[in-house]
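Hello forum,

I keep getting stuck at the same step: I have a sequence, I want structure tokens, and every attempt I make locally crashes halfway through. Rather than fight my setup again tonight, could one of you with a working pipeline run this one for me? It's a single chain of 133 residues.
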Amino acid sequence: MRPDLRLTSMTIGTSRPLGLARFYAGLLGWRVTEAEEPVPGDPVRGGWAQVKPPEGVAGFTLNFEYELHYRPPVWPSVPGAQNATQHLDIHVPDLAAGVEWAVACGAVLAEFQPQQDVRVMIDPDGHPFCLFL
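Reply #2:
Ran it on my machine without issues. Output:
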């Protein structure tokens, strides 16, 4: 019999956990709920942070974990370069307003856009994410 399994969170590797947590908290209107600062002089313990939706709002937790050898993915993928192994999809009722808000929060509109009703954005540490209608 299958045990009770529930998806509760997603962890994203980054070179700057707290900065990226603050970016997504601002973008989504969520809150940074946990943060561990980097340990000075320790290249492995570079910190982590956690973002959750506001109380009473459904959603899962985003964790941001320091990766010593983090390389930003290339979008779209190219042979031999780091590819994005996952990305966040974020629904918006107005695509233009969503892009404008994401840019104001620190994202960049990706040069390559494969679909009419989706906008690929790049977060401040190089991860692609999609805004969609």
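The two ends are 38 Å apart (CA to CA). If your local run keeps crashing, start a new thread with the error log.
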